Automatic annotation (TrEMBL):
Record organism: Hemiselmis andersenii (Cryptophyte alga)
Compositionally biased residues, Polar residues: 110-119
A Gene Ontology molecular function term of the record: microtubule binding
Protein name per UniProt: Calponin-homology (CH) domain-containing protein
Signal peptide annotation: none
InterPro entries per the UniProt record, alphabetical: CH_dom_sf, MAPRE
Basic and acidic residues biased stretches: 134-146
């Protein structure tokens, strides 16, 4: 977003994307934005989303050279981390507003734990570790208590 302020919809990016499908969605958005900004460089999106070293390396080389050519004139005063935080907050607000306008009601007690509610009313029950998973310290303290 640095060389083209306001053109990149950062709030639509998933900054915590871990799965290939999530990364692919981000890359498709990036491709579309690059095309709208007049940058004609096809991204190997499938390869990058699936963590292909060669595709990722070539893409990083392209962006590095692009930043070297265009960055010096625009990077002064650019707060990348601040823009990312603002985009993440905007994304969270949009997700919360869309979920509150379309509430879903769990059908069973276990369904309440599978919703995306960050503050569940009934947190899942935790179980004690099986005996083979208990640490030596816990065993010693249990023996002392007996």
């Amino acid at each position: 977003s640095m060389p083209h302020p306001g053109k990149v919809p950062l709030h639509r990016l998933d900054f915590s994307a871990k799965l290939p499908a999530q990364r692919l969605k981000n890359l498709r958005l990036l491709e579309k934005t690059l095309k709208e900004c007049g940058i004609d460089n096809p991204l190997p999106s499938d390869g990058i989303a699936n963590s292909s070293f060669q595709d990722t390396y070539e893409t990083l080389q392209f962006f590095h050279s692009f930043a070297q050519r265009n960055g010096p004139r625009v990077h002064v005063g650019y707060d990348a981390s601040g823009r990312r935080r603002a985009a993440q907050l905007q994304r969270e607000r949009l997700l919360l507003s869309s979920s509150s306008s379309n509430p879903t009601r769990p059908t069973s007690r276990t369904a309440a734990h599978t919703t995306s509610d960050p503050f569940p009313t009934n947190p899942p029950q935790t179980h004690a570790d099986p005996p083979h998973m208990v640490s030596h310290e816990a065993k010693r303290s249990a023996q002392r208590d007996d």
